[in-house]
Design goal:
Layout (H helix, E strand, L loop, with lengths): L6 E4 L4 E4 L7 E4 L2 H21 L19
Antiparallel strand pairs: 1-2, 2-3
Length: 71
């Protein structure tokens, strides 16, 4: 089991998500929940594609933190 960081961003009419440690692995959805579900499927397909091509599966390396700033 691997645990990858994901980024979900609000777009004008939907949500878009990507995985920093898996370039090209993206998903979009109407809601955050739908986007997470679709990204989970995309990660599975992405990893299977890497395996099928005989490529190494990248280890999770990104770190996600929040910083508090004065606005």
């Amino acid at each position: 089991m691997k645990r990858y960081a994901i980024v979900i961003e609000k777009a004008p009419s939907n949500y878009a998500a990507y995985v920093p440690d898996l370039p090209g692995c993206v998903a979009t959805g109407a809601t955050v929940a739908e986007t997470e579900t679709l990204l989970r499927e995309a990660i599975g397909l992405h990893l299977q594609g890497l395996r099928d091509d005989g490529l190494a599966i990248p280890e999770p390396a990104s770190v996600v933190e929040y910083l508090e700033v004065t606005a």
